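dude i think i finally got it to work??
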Amino acid sequence: MRAAMAECLSDKYERFETAEFLATFSDSTARQLHRNIKHDKRCAEPLMDIASEAMALEIMERKIDFPEIKYSKRLDGNSGKIREIGVECIKQQIYDYAAVNALMELFERKIGKYQCASIPGRGQVYGKKAIEKWVRKNPDKTRVGAKGDVHHCYPSIDIERLMSFLRKQVKNDDLLYLVETLIRSYKQGLSIGSYLSQWLCNYFLSFAYHYAEQNLYKVRKQRDGTKKRTRLIYKALFYMDDILLLGSRKADVRKAMEMLVKFFQEELGLTIKPNWKLFQMDHIGRDGKHHGDCIDMMGYKIYRDHTEVRRKIFLTARRAFMRAWKQLRKYKRIVLKLAYRCISYFGWFKNSDSTNFLKKYGIEQLMKYVKRRVSNESKIHNRTASGQLAAA
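look at this
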């Protein structure tokens, strides 16, 4: 519990809600404690020791208690969808970290190699590079693709089914009690915005991923009467609830997707949207032109010979870069919030074939000013914090 608390609060010490939580284990008021922690976060450590012991005792005595999750609807900037996000209290967030850390051995064993999103080191760039490698090194095996996504994945996950999987593979009553208490506090299924939920979602979908990797075969009868199993697909990749299958024959990939849809429905109780797409993978014909469809996934459009940034992200990023240049020319400085946005968007172009765009808009030159702006602000912040600590 102490390690989970330190990990969870590592970037939350200056929040007032952290002081409110620790104040329940102190004689000081939340406001006084908040002021003290801002001066020197080391004063929180004795209270964290007491809090972690109390929370561990709550698990052992089966008396876990925390406030209800608050829900709010937010617009997802990348997809344009409105999502209901659960905002947990600090105490529940700490329990989330404790549960994930305890389940990590199971997650590492069960979550598949090409299950991306929410896993450190396996994000959008990891998935993009994997797809690029497959379609460029093995064009004959990646002629056809099928792409679909799970309908309302998080809220549709059956908690009873999830717990039955965990009970078979986890033999620790304290841990099972902790996980069950946390997930039963959610409104429906798993909660978007929860640290534990993103790991449990990947774990739950891992059963479908391994089915796609190991069981998508067709059986052919040979002339001598023997049966031969042939794999229907070449590769599968899951980006959380987005699914991509690649293969060499249209009929095989279609059959593989139909088998996977059936598995999701019968074994996991989830529905892949009926508008899943079967397409011929982009290729360059004899006329030198592109034919077929690219793979539009994880914010990138992956072609046989190059990778582009998705149109919506491209337009939003270009607007931010042009605004930054305008501020720089007019005021000789960039607003800090905009500087952070530019750094964030630069990652998309750095990891795609956008050399012409970077050159046309002078993005690399702009990033020097942007990074300097962020660096200077960070130095001022650190200097101020050091001065406050010395004064205290």
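The chain has three domains: 1-110+156-189, 129-151+204-302, 307-390.
im so relieved honestly
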